[in-house]
C-alpha cells in the first residue's frame, strides 16, 4: 500500500478589518470583514471541489486566522471532527511601533524604500513597539497571549525571527490545514523552497486563497505553492496585496 504524501494546505487568513483599512496589524487581534469571511468560505468550497480531505489543522492565537480556519473546516464538513491546534508561534510577525499605522501614511512619513524594507525584507525588524503606541497595552495584556513566555514575547520581529519560531510539529502521512498569516507563510515558503533573501522581498500572498505543498519522506517538496483557485482570482488577489501601500483598492 502506497503511503500518502505529507500535504500541507496553507492559506492566508481572509481580509481582516485592518487589512481593509491598510493598517499594520501584527499581533493586534482584529476580526475578519464580511469579505474575509466570504473568502474563507470560498477557500473551503474550493478544497471540497478538489476532493481534498483534511486530517489535522493548525492556526495561530489570532482571531482572523482562527475564523478562517473554522470557516474552511465548516465548508469541508469536518469542523466537529478535526482538532485545531493553536499556537502563538504561528502568530503573524510583530510589527513593532508600526502597529496601527496606515501603510500609505507610513510611506509618506518614512519613504517607500524604508517601508518596503520593514514589510518585505528577511532580517530587518521595524522599531520596537513603544508604551506610547495606542495598541501597546491591548497587545501586552491580551489574555489570549497568557501562555507566551515573557522572555519570548516580542516587541518587534523581522521575517527571519517570525520564521524561526513558527514551524509546527506535523505528522507524516497527513493532510494538514495551516490557516495563518502572510508573513509567517512567506517565511515558511522561503525555507521550504530555498528562496533567496533578495527574492523573498517580492513574494506576495493573496488573502483567503489556499495553496498546497506536498513532501516526500525526507520532507523535500514534491509540489510547491500550487494555488487551488482560478488563475484570474489569484491574480486579482495578488494585485490587491501589492496595492496596500500605494492606492485605495476598489472592489
Automatic annotation (TrEMBL):
Keyword Isomerase: yes
InterPro entries: His_Pase_superF_clade-1, His_PPase_superfam, PG/BPGM_mutase_AS, Phosphogly_mut1
Keywords: Glycolysis, Isomerase
Protein name per its UniProtKB record: Phosphoglycerate mutase
Enzyme class: isomerase
UniProt cross-references to SMART domains, sorted A to Z: PGAM (SM00855)
HAMAP family (alphabetical): PGAM_GpmA (MF_01039)
Gene3D superfamilies per UniProt: Phosphoglycerate mutase-like
Reaction equations catalysed: (2R)-3-phospho-glyceroyl phosphate = (2R)-2,3-bisphosphoglycerate + H(+); (2R)-2-phosphoglycerate = (2R)-3-phosphoglycerate
Protein family per UniProt: Belongs to the phosphoglycerate mutase family. BPG-dependent PGAM subfamily.
EC number, UniProt record: 5.4.2.11, 5.4.2.4
Pfam family, one: His_Phos_1
